[in-house]
Amino acid sequence: MTTIKTLCFVIAALSSYAALIYRLFQVRRSWRDTAYRALVITLLLQCLTFTMGAFAMGSDRFLGVGNLAILVMHLSAVAFCVSAQIILLHWASATEESGRRARYWLIIGVALDALLTALFFIADGPGRPAEDFNTGSGRPLILIYLLVFMVSQAVPCVTILRQCVPYARMAGKTSLGQALRMLSVAAVILFLYCLARVVNVVTAAGGLDIGGWTLAASVFSALGIVTLSLALTISSWWPSASKLLEWVRGYRSYRALYPLWRDLYESSPDIVLEPPGAAVSDLNYRLHRRVIEIRDGWRELRPYIDRTTGGDGQASPKGSEESRQAFAEAAQIRQALHAKRTGTIPDDNADTGDFEDRDTDNFTAEVVWLTKVASAYRRLTKAR
Questions:
Q1: Residue 288: CB partners within 8 Å, gap ≥ 6?
Q2: What is the SS3 assignment for 65?
């Protein structure tokens, strides 16, 4: 169990340091921003909290004082929660009201740290076994110390969650909205950590042994801090991540359209503006060209599309109306390609009008629709 707890502290510490270092790269252009300074302070306190936690798992003494690492960890955790609350206030608004509420949280944080310090030394914290600060061991002052600490962690989780949810809806799909949603998730996970810690303390005080379930608190803590670290940095890396995800989606669509495009190109080589190539350095341009060329190749097949049949004789699969339509049009394309290769022109063909395709109102919808048609076409080809 000790190894797993230590590993959880190390994971939380590493994620905190990674977030801090990432944010420090922006110090030259952002230091005058109050929200940025509050963010850096929060990450510093977060790093200190879990560094002390990892240290406490390996040593009972810090600077020659017993269990001092545990006290420093708890004090910095309180300051870290208060600082995170202040960050949220700055994100929400920069009004005088947010400044007043920030000072209110600072006063609460100082008072809680003073209370925890007093309880620690009154309860002879330096002389107690380190395990007492995990279980309380039934000693009233240690129990009060631990419960005060857990309340100091749980209350900010609740207030952060209550504030994040409405503001996240207002922010929409912006980087701030994503940060607030991720911060909400982190608040929920860290609240579960608080509950798990309270359960550990209460069951130990009552003489109950819950075995390996005591590790739940450490797991929730590490998972919550990793999520929080991502939330506190997402506004910087989300735009780049969004572009990467958009590129990946575009590349997948580009590849998915290839079998349909290839057969249309072989049937009508003149639809291609440039010689085919494997490079995807200008993916957006190539994806546009592939969509246009598929549409042009589809139009070239109009004289060979038989209006009297539903495709190549295969039953349409079960599913949504959109899936059935994609299958029907893929089957028509396949039949028309065969008719063109054999020189068979149906009596009732589609040459007198436009081909029957889904009416899409933007390029993204067009890509999604053609990808479905291409997928159906690929299944039809493999079935033959």
A1: 363
A2: strand
CA-based nearest residue to 80, from 10, 144, 18, 153 = 153
The pLDDT of residue 138 is 66
For 303, the token pair is 């004289």
**pLDDT for 1-39, tens place per residue?**
677 877 887 888 888 888 888 888 877 766 677 777 878
> Which residues touch 58 (CB under 8 Å, ≥6 apart)?
6
Spatial CA neighbour of 175 closest among 91, 102, 82, 84 = 91
Give whichever of 49-58, 249-258, 278-287, 296-305 has the largest mean pLDDT: 249-258
Q: Tell me: the pLDDT tens digits for 285-328?
A: 888 998 999 988 888 888 887 766 555 445 556 667 778 888 88
> DSSP readout, 198-218?
HHHHHHHHTT---GGGGGHHH
Buried/exposed code over 126-153 (b: 16+ C-beta within 10 A; e: otherwise): eebebebbbbbeebeebbebbebbbebb
Q: What size, in residues, is the chain?
A: 384
Q: Specify the long-range contacts of residues 270-278, CB closer than 8 Å, at least 24 apart.
A: 271/296, 271/297, 271/300
Which residue stretches of the chain are H helix? 2-24, 27-30, 34-58, 68-92, 96-122, 132-135, 140-171, 175-205, 216-256, 258-267, 283-300, 321-342, 363-383
- Half-sphere exposure at residue 304, Cβ-oriented, CA atoms within 13 angstroms: 23
Spatial separation of the C-alpha atoms in residues 62 and 65, rounded to whole Å:
5
Residue 352 makes CB contacts below 8 A (sequence gap 6+) with none
pTM: 0.70
Decide: 55 and 47 in contact? Cβ < 8 Å: no
Backbone φ and ψ of 320, nearest 5°: -70, 165
- Predicted confidence (pLDDT) per residue in 75-126, tens digit: 998 998 888 888 777 766 666 666 777 888 889 889 999 999 999 999 888 8
Residue 61 parent element (H or E): strand 61-62
Helix 321-342 and helix 258-267: axis angle, to 10°? 30
